[in-house]
Amino acid sequence: MPEITVAIPIYNEEKNLEACINSVINQSFTDIQVLLVDDGSTDSSAELCRAFAKREPRIEVYHLENRGVSKARNYAITKAEGSYICFVDADDLIDKNMLEELYSCIKSHNADLSICGHQRVQMNNGKTRIVTHKCPEFNGPIKEFLTEIEAFLFAESVQGPCGKLYRMSLIKDNMIQFPHELDFGEDTVFVYRYLSFCKRVVSINKCLYCYMKRDNTTLSTLLREDKYQRYLYLYDLLEELLSSFQIPQRSNIIERWICLSAVDCVRELYDHRYGLAPGRRRSIMRNILLDDQVARCLSRQRTGTLHFRLICFFAHNRMFYILDLYFIVLSFTKSRMGLLYALLGKIYNSQLTKPTKDSFTTWVAHIF
User: Fold this and answer.
1) CA 224, CA 47: separation in Å to the nearest integer?
2) Which of 73, 103, 228, 280 could lock onto 265 through a cystine, CB 3.0 to 4.6 A?
3) 337 near 310, Cβ under 8 Å?
């Protein structure tokens, strides 16, 4: 029986699939079962899978009707024979030592979950930008891990299922699955549910998983106006998880992340590839920032970067036209952010002892 099962759900990835599979079968850790789950691809992905299986005995190929990535991963779980399982997306790559290092950590510390950091490789118009997300090094019981979870949230090390090694028995004994009824956040739901059954977690401060983000010409079709509501649902689940282990200061953590996610949803509206009309953009922004839970959390924020505090101030005072202008300027002057923050900070801290909506509007309008 193999020690590790690697599950790869596949849908129309003919351009990237070969590189992904090669990064898996060329691992320094060789005792693996590789499950290629073709989720009803309409390109040549299925043929590529079968070609790999003919020359690599560790590969098994399964063809499903197109039902989504969650059902493909759940199907892989039913076919997994390894003591541990790892999920890899078909358009991504993994370092040749990833499985070996995750396995060494999980075995030597008798842990239920091992985690590594990752890189995001953004490729647009022939240009490549690499962002590194190193997760904190950790080895300890689950309660201690959850006490420090905010550091892992900032490193984006717990929100998704990849770059991790899971104990297969824990998944099967507790019937943990990816919720197929969700089309956003299903990855995070799986990880949170798995953590609720863990006893020990270990992580390594190395970036061994590589998310490949290639040219996206269909971004305008992917805008989700209800994205912030999905985030609220995920933070409700996180609060339940932290509460079940009696983690202190959990309310502060949840409120801070609700605000950060709401701000991120607003920032996304200003990506020129969405092509949103100004009126619609402001309407979506208002819906996000005037949500009862979001507004309450924003009103309580007193710390964070100047950028974050300014947005909280604008939102709390319902200065949506100013906030709209603020994000417009930021989207076109990324190279001048430092100067912009410095100017706004000086006005906010020095010239407005008791800021009001009218006075702040006057000063910001003067700058722009």
Assistant:
1) 33
2) 228
3) no
